[in-house]
Design brief:
The protein has 4 helices and no strands. It is mainly α.
């Protein structure tokens, strides 16, 4: 799997697992919501600084952004539509 796709897969996997919207993740990581969307679609090549912000916002380790999915794993489904509350 290409590295951008791998990071995209894991950002979305971690975000959905935590029930966080793209908007909330963007606010917490101090990046634009559309940038989160492009990251999750593998359209952007994030800097180390952006990866560090995402790790802090998702509460995970940097290694989790590079975890290879198990064979047969499906791409994470999106959250239901609507705004999500910030979980503190």
């Amino acid at each position: 799997m290409e590295i951008r796709r791998l990071v995209a897969w894991n950002i979305r996997r971690l975000r959905v697992a935590r029930g966080v919207s793209q908007e909330i993740l963007a606010l917490d990581a101090q990046i634009d919501r559309t940038y989160v969307s492009r990251l999750e679609r593998g359209m952007e090549n994030p800097t180390v600084v952006v990866l560090d912000r995402l790790v802090a916002a998702l509460g995970c380790s940097i290694f989790e952004l590079f975890a290879v999915p198990a064979r047969g794993d499906k791409f994470p489904q999106p959250l239901r539509k609507g705004r999500r509350r910030r979980v503190e």
